[in-house]
Write a structure and sequence with these properties.
Blueprint: H1 7-14, E1 18-29, H2 39-56, H3 67-70, E2 77-87, E3 91-96, E4 99-105, E5 109-114, E6 122-127, E7 136-141, H4 145-167, H5 199-210, E8 216-219, H6 222-228, E9 234-239, E10 249-254, E11 260-264, E12 272-273, E13 278-279, H7 282-292, E14 296-297, E15 309-310, E16 314-315
Parallel strand pairs: 8-9, 9-16
Antiparallel strand pairs: 1-2, 1-7, 2-3, 3-4, 5-6, 6-7, 9-10, 10-11, 12-13, 14-15
């Protein structure tokens, strides 16, 4: 099984890496391991660090830091200069005028995501330095922040694949003091899932996952869903009311153009997939796209070559906790 990355790109990531231009804004010490936090807290920590650094260097207005996050982060180390960011399957390097100033092995990379709102051109990642100490959130800005994110995710995909290949021939994998056998994919998107359930079993797992989620509305018609979506970025997940369809979980959202979009989230093998990635469950898909500010995209329509995309900005709360039917249709 090969990593889910173009072979030519894979080879580049395994060798010299990919170099992108960015502005290194600064860093913030993080005294608590990401491994001890729930996914929402990880995103909150990185978002607060991005905001804190951006305000310090004058890129945005200062805001009060969440008191919980404030207890686990330190003072900003201001930098604010142009760098080359070299990303490979082994390491992330920050280079200033041909001088290496930061070096973070992928095995010490623990979490990352894009900034929110006015800071959406920024990216923050939490990592330790090459000797496994000094855990910090490093914040950069880029004209193409999404390319930076995509390259880093690809590098981690290759790193995970290579680590698994190596582990298959060794009984003693190396674990860091953060508890990682391999690095986590940034922004909660655990894209690699090597062990898949049967379609029926996978449908049950997806059905169990959405129970009680604020954005899940159970059985809801397309018209009723559209009546609930009033602002661009509003979204919800529902079950199609026609019981004969296997891909019954649907993501409904409102675009900036005022168009209602409806994306089926499960393919014919009951896998949660978008155009770009495959996820273990719907919550993982929602968390990944919200944390990164990335639109959920489908494959281009074969007829008119248009793609459908939905930004996930505000979940529309369900009126009460609902449960889907746990069995797919026969």
């Amino acid at each position: 099984m090969a990593p889910p990355v173009d072979p030519r790109f894979t080879q580049e990531l395994r060798s010299s890496g990919v170099t992108l231009a960015a502005v290194y804004l600064g860093s913030v010490p993080v005294i608590e391991s990401m491994n001890s936090m729930v996914s929402q807290m990880r995103s909150q920590v990185v978002a607060e660090c991005i905001q804190h650094v951006a305000a310090t260097v004058g890129q945005c207005e200062a805001q009060e830091i969440n008191p919980i996050v404030g207890r686990i982060i330190g003072d900003v180390k201001e930098e604010n200069y142009v760098v080359d960011l070299n990303i490979s399957a082994k390491m992330v390097k920050v280079i200033k005028k041909n001088r290496l100033i930061q070096r973070h092995p992928i095995t010490y990379f623990s979490f990352g995501c894009r900034g929110r709102g006015e800071n959406s051109n920024m990216f923050g990642y939490i990592a330790k330095n090459k000797d496994g100490t000094d855990r910090r959130c490093h914040v950069l800005s880029s004209k193409d922040a999404q390319k930076l994110v995509d390259t880093l995710i690809a590098a981690i995909d290759v790193s995970i694949f290579d680590a698994q290949e190596k582990a298959s021939t060794s009984s003693t994998p190396s674990v860091t003091d953060d508890g990682f056998v391999r690095p986590e994919v940034p922004a909660e998107g655990r894209i690699v899932n090597l062990v898949r359930q049967s379609p029926v079993g996978n449908h049950r797992a997806v059905a169990d996952d959405v129970v009680g989620k604020v954005w899940f509305h159970g059985h809801l018609s397309r018209d009723d869903a559209q009546n609930l979506l009033t602002m661009a970025g509003d979204f919800l997940v529902r079950c199609r009311q026609s019981d004969h369809t296997s891909g019954k979980f649907v993501l409904s959202g409102l675009t900036t153009d005022g168009d209602h979009k409806h994306l089926i989230l499960l393919d014919h093998q009951m896998r949660v997939r978008t155009r770009d990635h495959e996820f273990n469950n719907i919550t993982e898909l929602i968390d990944y796209h919200m944390a990164n500010g990335i639109a959920v995209r489908t494959e281009r329509n074969a007829k008119d070559q248009r793609e459908t995309s939905i930004m996930l900005l505000r979940p529309v709360p369900a009126p009460a906790t609902v449960s889907p039917s746990p069995e797919p249709p026969a």
